[in-house]
Amino acid sequence: MTDEPGHDYRGLVPGDHREEQVAAAFVDLADTLVDDYDVLDFLHGLAEHCVALLDVDAAGLVIADPAGLLRVAASSSEQVRVLELFELQNEEGPCLECYRTGVAVSADDLDDPDSGWTQFAEVTKTAGFQSVVALPLRLRDQTIGALNMFRVHSGALTSADRSLGQALADVATIGILQERGARRQEQLARQLQEALNSRVIIEQAKGVLAERRGVHVDEAFRVLRQYARSKGERLSDVAQRVIQRDLDPADLPMSEGTRTDLR
Amino acid sequence: MAPNRIRELVRAAEASRPGIDAVAHLCTMAAEGLPVDGVGLSVTGGPGRHSKVTATDDVSGSIEDLQVLLGQGPCVDAVATGAPVLVPDLEAPGVQARWPAFLPAVSAIGVRASFALPLVVGEVRLGAMDMYRSEVGGLGRRAEDEAKAYAGAAVELLLAASHTEAQDRLPAGMRSGWAGSSVVHQASGMVMVQLDCDIATAFAALRARAYREERPLADLARDVIERQVRFDRSAP
Questions:
Q1: Which has more confidence, A140 or A96?
Q2: Residues of chain B contacting residue A92, judged by C-beta atoms under 8 Å apart
Q3: Does B82 reach chain A within 8 Å, measured CB to CB?
Q4: What does pTM read for this prediction?
Q5: In chain B, which residue's Cα lies nearest the Cα of A198?
Q6: Interface pTM (ipTM) of the complex?
Q7: N or C: chain A end with fewer CB closer than 10 Å?
Q8: Do B7 and A200 touch (CB under 8 A)?
Q9: Scanning every residue of chain B, which has its alpha carbon at the shortest distance from the alpha carbon of A220?
Q10: Which of residues 32-71 of B touch A (CB under 8 A)?
Q11: Shared domain check, B153 and B44
Q12: What is the CATH number of the domain that holds B31?
């Protein structure tokens, strides 16, 4: 997997190399069987796979925290405007409905007044998306979150895309549960909480990095991930060291596309 | 811990009392629901700076006051490490050396076991919830999980209480989940660099400014990210 698969695959007609790409997603899953694997990095890769494999333009994995709030665990895009679309749905939206009902929820055209979610539709269209799908992350009889996907164009996902999307959602759930000991119910909540807490630490580290390096927070994630991968460290460990000042952001490599000085 | 246990506790605490009083009520619920004799809660304003928020009884109150005064104890350690500090027997070997001033003082008021749970949001440590028993003995697995749920609920309530007013001014769609909001955490990281402080102080500074300027926290955070607002002296 490269650092920017979302962009690398843009030129492909959906369907090309699809089998290889599906295989790649499952190879990533196999990696999660190894002790001490990085669940957030895995989920981030999975979100990128969704954009590469399916006819969607942005994908995010949203997990409910122990307080029942929907929180972003990973997103194919780290842009603030996209991250906020997931969080916004704690009030209304397909993700919330999917989480509550445990079934797939979609809006094929947000201009359609019957789709409901007035405010969500407005903000989503402003962000440049016209249709949206949410597929449940299911564990036995329980829904732990949703795979939420956005499309620039209106229209429904093909049934093949929908099935593959649900397969990827199931892969995400398995990946989360793969974390040691998470198979037991009382430990599941703790594991989910830890993953979400790690995500908070990553957001904080993105801010430190953005300020130190004079880049936008949207770009900071890529720098963190590239460093973590090159050193074989967990994303959340790298992020934690940045916040605790054990790792100087000046030591992190500058990746392509982060050179713009915004100050 | 059942997935929605924290939310249940938050609702129960808020149902009887609004705002910061709900935190006090939550502590009373914990004292009644867990195998402990009293519960106290203190918040931190940075390393070594703690202040008592509430306590269910005089002994718990003294435990909080002593830790604030002496700068040592299970709650201080829980905040410093971000991990629970569970001591089922305060007279066990090695405990004395850990808190030489705190221990004799609490022994004198009948405290035999102490359990401190940190209140954390990512790397931000807001404070700790302290529970004590007048008899030696651990909480046990189930009560330990339940105690963590109470601590999680305390975090939600503390954060909600400090922002109820600002929250009310938000448009409906942007109101929820502010503590889970990505922009707030990103902005905290930026403010940490601007003020050359730790992440907890940066988070507190961000919240304080939002409160002072009577604006939604996420709004202020967005301005920090877009570099419209700075927290250091070179502010435009």
A1: A96
A2: 173
A3: no
A4: 0.59
A5: B122
A6: 0.71
A7: C
A8: no
A9: B186
A10: none
A11: yes
A12: 3.30.450.40
> How many domains does the structure of chain B reveal?
2
Residue B183: closest C-alpha in chain A:
A80
Instruction: Note whether A82 and A74 are within 8 A (CB).
Output: no
Provide mean pLDDT across the span A40-69.
88
DSSP states of chain A: --S-HHHHTTTSPTTTTHHHHHHHHHHHHHHTTSTT--HHHHHHHHHHHHHHHSS-SEEEEEEE-TTS-EEEEEES---HHHHHHHHHTTTSSHHHHHHHH-S-EEES-TT-GGG--HHHHHHHHHTT--EEEEEEEEETTEEEEEEEEEESS-SPPPHHHHHHHHHHHHHHHHHHHHSTTTTSHHHHHHHHHHHHHHHHHHHHHHHHHHHHHT--HHHHHHHHHHHHHHHT--HHHHHHHHHTTSS-GGGSPPPTT------
Q: What is the spatial order of strands in the sheet that B38-44 belongs to? A: B50-55, B38-44, B124-133, B113-121, B85-87
Decide if B173 touches A, using CB distance below 8 A.
Answer: yes
Domains and CATH numbers, chain A: 5-180 (3.30.450.40), 184-263 (no CATH)
Range of the structural domain that residue B220 is part of: 169-225
Q: Are residues B155 and B177 in the same domain?
A: no
User: d(Cα A37, Cα A4) in Å, to the nearest integer?
Assistant: 21
Q: pLDDT at residue A72 above 80?
A: yes
Domain membership of residue B61 (yes or no) is yes
Which residues of chain A are within 8 Å of residue B149 when distances are taken between CB atoms? 66
pLDDT tens, residue by residue, B31-42: 999 999 999 998
Do A66 and B5 make contact, defined as CB atoms within 8 angstroms? Answer: yes
